C-alpha cells in the first residue's frame, strides 16, 4: 500500500516537473535563437520555428499532460491515503498539504526556474520530448487546438512589437551585449517610422537659395565661404524653386573662366516631398534615385524647407554630423532664434530681459 502511494506521488511530480521545464524552455526561446538554429542545427531550428509559428500546439500538449499528471496523482495518492489511514487527520489534512507543497515546489518553482535559466542547453531535449508528447496525446491536442482557434479567430498578432525591440536594445546595453552607441542606434531605428520630413528638414527661413539667372561669379562673390554643397535655385521667389546646383560644379566652372554663365546652366532636378513624408520612405527614395536633397512643400505647394540625406542619417544616428566649417549645428534651432528676434522687434513676444524683470517682480 505504501508502495502505491509513493509510485502515484513520484509519477505525478515527475510528469509535472517535465511539463514545467518544457513550458519554461519553450516560452524562453526567442525568434532570433530559432533562426540561428536553422543555420547551426537545422532539425532543431525547423522544429523550434514550427513550434513558434503554431505555439498553441506544443502548449496544448504540455498543459494536457500536466493536467493528467495532477489529476491522476491527486486521485491515486488520495485513494491510497484513505485505504491506509482511513478518515484520520493524516489522510484528510496532512496528505493534501504535502501534495500541494510538493507540486508547488518540485513541479512548478524549481523546474520553471531551471528551464528559464538553461533554455538554450535544453532546447534540443525540449524539441525531442515535445514531439513524443504531441504524438502520444494527438487526439487531445487536436481538440484543444480546435477550441483555441475558435476562441482566437482573427486575433493573429506578432509576438514582438517595436517597443519590445527598443526595450531589448536598452537591456542589451545594460547587460553589456551592446555598447551605449549601438543601443542608441537600435532605439533610433525603432522610432524611425514615426519621424517625417517636417521633423528633420532645414526650415525655409534659413535655407540659402539663389536666383537662377544670377551669374556664377556674382553668387560666388556673395557667398565665398558658403558651407552648403547643394543650393536650391528659384525663378521669382523661394516658392518657385526650379532645381538646385552643386557648389563643386560652380567652382569647377569658375576655374574654366565661365564667370558670366547663369546658375541655371548648372541646374539639376529637385524633387519635392510633402511635410508628412515618412523618413524611411525618404531614405529609400534617396538611395534608389541616387540623390541627396529634396524640397519639402506644405499643403499649398509652397516651400517649407529642404531635407538632405545628411538630415536623415543624423536622425538615424541620433546626432548632428558637423564638419570643420559648421558654425550652426542645428539649423532648426537657429531658425527658431531668428524668428524670436524678429518677433521681439515687432512686439509679438517680450524680450528676454523684460521676461526676467517680470519674473523677478
Describe the structure in brief:
The protein has 16 helices and seven strands. With 361 residues, it is an alpha/beta fold.
Layout of helices and strands:
Elements: H1 2-28, H2 31-40, H3 42-53, H4 56-85, H5 89-117, H6 123-136, H7 138-151, H8 162-174, H9 180-191, H10 197-200, E1 202-203, E2 210-211, H11 216-222, E3 230-234, E4 241-246, H12 247-255, E5 272-274, H13 279-289, E6 293-297, E7 303-308, H14 309-317, H15 331-346, H16 352-360
Parallel strand pairs: 2-3, 5-6
Antiparallel strand pairs: 1-7, 3-4, 6-7
Helix pairs in contact: 1-4, 1-5, 1-6, 2-3, 4-5, 4-6, 4-7, 8-9
Task: Describe the 3D structure.
- A 4-stranded mixed β-sheet has the order 1-7-6-5.
- The protein contains 16 helices and 7 strands.
- Mean pLDDT is 79; it is low at 320-329, 345-349 and 353-361.
- The chain is an alpha/beta fold and 361 residues long.
List keywords for this structure.
single chain, about 350 residues, alpha/beta, four-stranded mixed beta sheet, three-stranded mixed beta sheet, 16 helices, 7 strands, about 10% strand, rod-shaped, disordered C terminus
The run of helices and strands is: HHHHHHHHHHEEHEEHEHEEHHH
Quaternary organisation: single chain
Number of strands: 7
Q: Kindly state the percentage of residues in helix.
A: 55-70%
Main sheet: strands, sense, barrel: 4 strands, mixed
Quickly give the structural class.
Answer: alpha/beta
Amino acid at each position: 500500500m505504501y508502495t502505491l502511494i509513493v509510485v502515484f506521488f513520484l509519477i505525478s511530480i515527475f510528469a509535472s516537473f517535465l511539463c514545467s521545464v518544457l513550458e519554461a524552455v519553450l516560452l524562453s526561446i526567442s525568434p532570433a535563437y530559432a533562426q540561428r538554429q536553422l543555420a547551426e542545427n537545422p532539425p532543431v531550428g525547423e522544429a523550434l520555428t514550427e513550434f513558434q509559428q503554431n505555439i498553441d500546439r506544443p502548449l496544448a500538449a504540455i498543459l494536457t499532460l500536466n493536467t493528467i499528471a495532477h489529476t491522476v496523482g491527486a486521485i491515486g495518492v488520495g485513494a491510497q491515503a484513505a485505504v491506509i489511514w482511513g478518515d484520520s487527520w493524516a489522510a484528510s489534512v496532512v496528505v493534501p498539504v504535502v501534495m500541494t507543497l510538493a507540486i508547488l515546489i518540485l513541479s512548478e518553482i524549481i523546474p520553471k526556474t531551471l528551464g528559464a535559466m538553461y533554455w538554450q542547453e535544453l532546447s534540443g531535449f525540449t524539441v525531442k520530448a515535445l514531439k513524443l508528447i504531441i504524438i502520444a496525446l494527438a487526439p487531445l491536442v487536436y481538440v484543444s487546438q480546435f477550441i483555441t482557434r475558435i476562441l482566437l479567430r482573427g486575433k493573429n498578432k506578432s509576438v514582438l512589437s517595436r517597443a519590445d525591440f527598443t526595450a531589448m536594445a536598452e537591456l542589451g546595453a545594460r547587460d553589456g551585449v551592446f555598447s551605449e552607441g549601438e543601443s542608441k542606434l537600435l532605439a533610433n531605428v525603432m522610432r524611425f517610422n514615426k519621424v517625417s520630413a517636417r521633423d528633420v528638414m532645414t526650415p525655409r527661413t534659413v535655407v540659402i537659395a539663389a536666383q537662377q539667372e544670377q551669374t556664377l561669379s556674382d553668387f560666388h562673390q556673395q557667398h565665398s565661404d558658403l558651407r552648403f554643397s547643394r543650393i536650391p535655385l528659384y525663378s521669382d521667389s523661394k516658392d518657385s524653386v526650379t532645381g538646385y546646383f552643386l557648389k563643386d560644379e560652380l567652382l569647377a566652372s569658375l576655374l574654366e573662366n565661365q564667370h558670366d554663365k547663369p546658375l541655371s546652366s548648372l541646374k539639376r532636378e529637385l524633387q519635392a516631398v510633402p511635410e508628412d513624408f515618412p523618413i524611411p520612405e525618404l531614405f529609400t527614395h534617396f538611395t534608389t534615385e541616387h540623390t541627396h536633397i529634396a524640397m519639402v512643400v506644405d499643403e499649398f505647394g509652397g516651400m517649407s524647407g529642404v531635407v538632405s540625406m545628411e538630415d536623415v542619417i543624423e536622425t538615424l544616428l541620433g546626432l548632428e554630423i558637423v564638419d570643420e566649417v559648421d558654425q550652426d549645428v542645428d539649423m532648426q534651432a537657429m531658425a527658431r532664434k531668428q524668428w524670436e528676434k524678429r518677433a521681439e522687434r515687432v512686439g509679438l513676444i517680450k524680450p528676454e530681459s523684460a521676461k526676467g524683470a517680470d519674473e523677478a517682480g
